[in-house]
Specification:
CATH architecture of the largest domain in chain A: 2-Layer Sandwich
Helix content of chain A: 25-40%
CATH architecture of the largest domain in chain B: 2-Layer Sandwich
Order of helices and strands of chain B: EHEHEEEHHHHHHEEHEEEEEEEHHH
Radius of gyration of chain A: 28 Å
Distance between the termini of chain B: 50 Å
Strand content of chain B: 25-35%
CATH topology of the largest domain in chain A: Aldehyde Oxidoreductase, domain 4
CATH superfamily of the largest domain in chain A: Aldehyde oxidase/xanthine dehydrogenase, molybdopterin binding domain
Strand order of the largest sheet of chain B: 4-5-10-6-7
Oligomer: heterodimer
CATH topology of the largest domain in chain B: Uridine Diphospho-n-acetylenolpyruvylglucosamine Reductase, domain 3
Structural class of chain B: alpha+beta
Number of domains of chain B: 3
CATH class of the largest domain in chain A: Alpha Beta
Shape of chain A: globular
Shape of chain B: globular
Radius of gyration of chain B: 19 Å
Strand order of the largest sheet of chain A: 3-7-1-16-13-14-15
Chain lengths: ~800, ~290
Amino acid sequence: MNDMTPTREQRTAALEGMGCKRKRVEDIRFTQGKGNYVDDVKLPGMLHGDFVRSPHPHARVKKIDDSEALKVPGVLAVITAETLKTVNLAWMPTLAGDVQMVLADGKVLFQNQEVAFVVATDRYAADDGINKVVVEYEPLPPLVDPFKSMDADAPVLREDLAGKTSGAHGPRKHHNHIFEWTVGDKELTDAAFKKAEVTIKEMISYHRTHPSPLETCQCVCSFDKIKGELTIYGTFQAPHVIRTVVSLIAKLPEQKIHVIAPDIGGGFGNKVGAYPGYICAAVASIVTGKPVKWVEDRIENLTATSFARDYHMTTEIAATKDGKVTGLRVHVLADHGAFDACADPSKWPAGFFNIVTGSYDFPTAHLAVDGVYTNKAPGGVAYRCSFRVTEAAYCIERAMDILAQKLNMDPAELRLKNFIKPEQFPYHSALGWEYDSGDYHTAMRKMMETTGYAALRKEQAEKRAAFARGETREIMGLGVSFFTEIVGAGPSKNCDILGIAMFDSCEIRMHPTGAGIARMGTKSQGQGHETTWAQIIATEIGIPADNIMVEEGNTDTAPYGLGTYGSRSTPVAGAAIAMAARKIKAKAQMIAAYKLEVHEDDLEWDIDGFRVKGLPEKFMSMKDICWAAYNSVPPGMEPGLEAVSYYDPPNMTYPFGAYLCVMDIDVDTGVYKVRRFYALDDCGTRINPMIIEGQVHGGLTEAFAIAMGQEIRYDEAGNVVTGSFMDFFMPTAVETPHWETDFTVTPSPHHPIGAKGVGESPNVGGVPAFSNAVNDAFSFLGSTHIQMPHDYWRNWKAAKQLGAVA
Amino acid sequence: MIPGSFSYHRPASVADAVKLLSDLGEDARPLAGGHSLVPMMKLRLASPAHLVDLHGIAGLKGISRNGNNLVIGAMTTQHDLLASEEVAKSIPILREAALLIADPQVRYRGTIGGNVANGDPGNDMPALMMALGASYRLEGTNGARDVAAADFYQGAYFTALEPGEILTSVSVPVPAAGHGYAYEKLKRKVGDYATAAAAVVLTMAGGKVATCSIGLTNVHETPLLAADAAKAVIGTSLDAATLKKAAAAAEAIMAPAADARGPVEYRKHVGGIMVTRALQRAAANAK
């Protein structure tokens, strides 16, 4: 060997495979403003549509007069529910088994509901037209408080459901009731509470908020009358599902629908479902014969397309007096707004909320969830979390702190005492899940050691004494959070969307020169798939990641997949990528054996090619195998080198983490300072540590926002009062704390590369850490639970109620 | 979020602008930085048929010294204020407050004239101008007149400006050398209006407050001059009891609206704290 022969380390590094902090390849275009988003799509003759929206939260629509609007120069059409009825599209199915008005049909059920769609030659004319549509309303009493939704005299919201005593998820108890979902053993749980030495009970609310991606929801629909084909460019996290849904509800053959999701500027669950804008733009294109663009503005995004959370969780824990948990009982009142447009796998009306036993070994548990209608925007999407997992994590992590307080135990110690032990995995939870792997004690202890947890508790005790002596007006809180997520939906045995199993897919096609293209059923919205997917392939088949082009989002070219949300891309598509790559490698091995004139079994894999065992100089690189695949394959073998894999995961994956937030609060103003935030994540095998760190930073920033002020709020009359970034807290770099990140690695035993998914962990684990910090700060003044969000005035109010402020 | 249609005018002189506004009547609005007017137009809460853009008038921009006054042209941006050595040297509280207005992008565009003339109680500069004893030059078809900032604000978005008049400059008396100053603003995030804010300008003599004025932002439908609170601290060394008295006197004239920043009680309470903190900091930096 001469000096120029690369070392094994150099050969490995050249691949930029798994474990490499490879720079994001998509950022070259994003940082130069050269991304291609839906609003960049401009088709010849394209029209613009925009909505007339309801100013009332609940009203009967008496009359819609569009005569003046149609006189506005540039306005071509005004579409109403009556128009949509002619094509049977006035209502559409939701992912949750409910139906939803596309345009107001007889009444409106939430403020800013879509009432009419004005189509014009440009956006300005469309808005001028909107202002000329005259709608006559008869206001009805609004139902805002979910706790009053099932009162006997509560207004009837959904007249379309009159007489229906059962819905998609079983019996309905009341005209505003959607479903009741129960899991667990009620008798055993009740018995555990009866003989419990200690119990706690608290109503823990997770307020309504919104994913608020910077790019709002939008689409361009173009119907070709000659070919009978509909092309839809849209902000879709799940483009293939959108194509199937459009085919089913518009009765168009699926091969004649082309769905293209170009670059997407953030999704966070907001872009999973179908919205009236998509249907109206498609119908408008069919009606006018021209392409029609619909682009939401910020107010519309915050107030009409799907919200998240709004779970009110009455939580009880039974325990022994030395702090061993013996039972968990949770009742959730779930506010879904006017239509159940929750984006969960079809059989899961409350998502995977039954992960609520968290990281703890509860011998028994029982959960009941009641979903109700109110006069608010529809939804219930998973805002950067697997379905309802962040609500569950908040519920149990807050409750464990409340129990610790009651027992006068340190919250970290209480958790260590109740963790599922490493030898218990795979662990069957009381509410039905099989946790794949975990080492909770190691993660927790690493967090405590790295942060100097014991010293922080000592400092807190000193500060509390100083506060009592009147020497300071600042109080200090330590927020511990130890979350277990359930992600990677999901195995066909328990997950489907409208009957389609939640597998995912990958197709890899290698070209003669040792380069290739890979396509998946997922769709990045900023997660960096173009970077990380190529890294998996690089390690699996020994071709540099730079030589693999990753493409997603075009339903004509990509294999069918269920899309990107719920941290499912790495657990499901990531596995499909590894499996497709292994098929490539298996064929490559046959070609190499033929070319090297040995038996396949005499070959061993060596970083970027095959080597004959015992004959190190006899080596064929993957690059050369690619060339051979196109000119000299073994007799009887088909030429070419490509593979497809559809992966149905055997189980979910269960990422976990240990977080700590250190917060100081000035009781006189309620102003808080996040002094320190430490996040240890275990997402199994780490594909790109830099991207993981970026994901954690982003998710923690969202968690910070949600816990400390971000909310969708309605006043008593049903007006939504948080319709802009002035009042809907969207932190800037100035407000955002500094993040310290750390990790442990506990691979998933059932995943081909051991990866679990990480995108949503920081949102799920972060919210309880912030809220527990605030609650911990106030606890010595006598409070057990203060509801989120913890913005300045609410902190002051808590201080005042606890007597700390005159 | 799409404005209605309007005609755009760009006069080259104050006389032309005044004439346009006078001729076009109530359907016309002058346009400065646009940070208040344009969002209102996008929400169609304002639909002026004519916009008279003042950016073409060269004489409206710039900062100059006129005797003991600093004269700031109405179209001078917040960024220009921040870049001015004269402002930093002679009226540093202007610089301190300008840094708390929104973010750099807004400050590149937002003007001092627009900020003080719009009558938005959330704007930071009006209370400051009242505390500094500034006056505004208003020009209309009947000529020019000067109105004290303290007499300018009549209600939310209602000011002493008559139809057709334009605010062309702000004249600020330079405070005494060695004066103390502070602008304390509590806000939820960068870019937000104040939950409550207080501007204090004072002089100290022998450890005691010799002169003092206090302005309050966003705690009433107009900016406020807290005269009783200022009077309460004259001749004192700002001991705890005096501070308490001053905060109470300031709170007594506050009447903020309840909004997402907090209920009335909270906004008044932190308004008092802003007064206390501004007094303490101003006294500490007085020479």
